């Protein structure tokens, strides 16, 4: 899915995965006790960052559609067309799932 938004520099827009609503043993977790998800899908990617000393463009390592793992408090929550997304720098991403 691609949004009608283009992040600047080395930023990405991530659609967070749904929070867990049930434990492994089958107990339902109320909305107030659910933890903020730490993984999601990239929906938009910026062009990359320019190197300070040479001025050359450092391309992004992630692409639209990648499943990523990020920090618990990474990024800024934004609302686009009534849907919640996170916008963060590429360096806030810890890993990419295959």
Automatic annotation (TrEMBL):
This is Co-chaperonin GroES. Heptamer of 7 subunits arranged in a ring. Interacts with the chaperonin GroEL. It is found in: Cytoplasm. One of its GO terms (molecular function) is ATP binding. It comes from the Bacteria. The keyword Cytoplasm applies. GO terms for cellular component: cytoplasm. Belongs to the GroES chaperonin family. The keyword Thylakoid does not apply. Its main location: cytoplasm. Together with the chaperonin GroEL, plays an essential role in assisting protein folding. The GroEL-GroES system forms a nano-cage that allows encapsulation of the non-native substrate proteins and provides a physical environment optimized to promote and accelerate protein folding. GroES binds to the apical surface of the GroEL ring, thereby capping the opening of the GroEL channel. Keywords: Chaperone, Cytoplasm. It holds the Pfam family Cpn10.
């Amino acid at each position: 899915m691609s949004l009608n938004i283009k992040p600047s520099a080395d930023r990405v827009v991530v659609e967070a995965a749904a929070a867990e609503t049930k434990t492994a043993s089958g107990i339902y977790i109320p909305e107030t006790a659910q933890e903020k998800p730490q993984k999601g899908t990239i929906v938009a990617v910026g062009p990359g960052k320019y190197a300070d000393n040479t001025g050359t463009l450092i391309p992004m390592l992630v692409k639209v559609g990648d499943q990523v793992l990020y920090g618990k408090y990474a990024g800024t929550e934004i609302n686009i067309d009534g849907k919640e997304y996170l916008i963060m720098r590429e360096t806030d991403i810890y890993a990419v799932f295959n």
